[in-house]
Amino acid sequence: MIENIKAKIKDWAGAAQQRAAWQQQGQKVVFTNGCFDLLHYGHIHYLAQARELGDALIIGLNAADSVRRLKGPNRPINDETTRLWQMAALQFVDLVVPFEEDTPAALIELLKPDVLVKGGDYAINSIVGADTVLQNGGEVRVLPYIEGYSTTSLEEKIRNRS
To answer: What tens digit of pLDDT does each residue of 84-110 get?
Structure first.
């Protein structure tokens, strides 16, 4: 099992190779991204729904410095290795790729997924990478946000108990 989990974690070159292999096999590739700091029901539900949109699910995972810039100095709560392994351990996740940038635009440009997915109340034209995916004949989907589940609310709950 350990080797199976490790095999799902790739650098950009490895991810591009795997994407090309899936493309040659005619598989529909779905991409989403996030910090996935404290894994919770909202994440699990969202990622499982995303995977149902295709044959393979790639997760672009914000690296630690990227999370800090986006979420503040107290984040991430879980280190990068833990977050990578948590994502890769999920049966419906096929590949996990860390990225250092504040957005996954360059990674999306490299991988050119067939489906780009975000959760919440995004407008498609505000989703990073949507233009790339649409220009390449793909689709962009917004999945519903599940109220009451967020890493920020979990962080607040933990801090208020101590």
So the answer is: 999 999 999 999 999 999 999 999 999
Mean pLDDT of 135-145: 94
Amino acid at 14: G
Q: How much is the pLDDT for 134? A: 97
Q: Do 118 and 46 meet the contact criterion of CB atoms below 8 Å apart?
A: no
Residue with tokens 């598989």: 27
CB 58 within 8 A of CB 15: yes
Alpha-carbon torsion 22, 94, 105, 11, what sign?
negative
Rounded CA separation 68/75 (Å): 5
pLDDT, residue 123, reads 84
CB atoms within 10 A of CB 134: 15
Question: How far is the C-alpha of 2 from the C-alpha of 6, rounded, in Å?
Answer: 6
**What is the C-alpha R_g of the chain?**
15
153-93-1 Cα angle (round to 5): 110
Please, are residues 129 and 105 in contact by the beta-carbon 8 Å criterion? yes
What's the average model confidence in pLDDT over 61-80? 92
Strand order in the sheet with 139-143: 95-99, 56-62, 29-34, 115-119, 139-143
Q: Which pLDDT score is estimated for 97?
A: 98
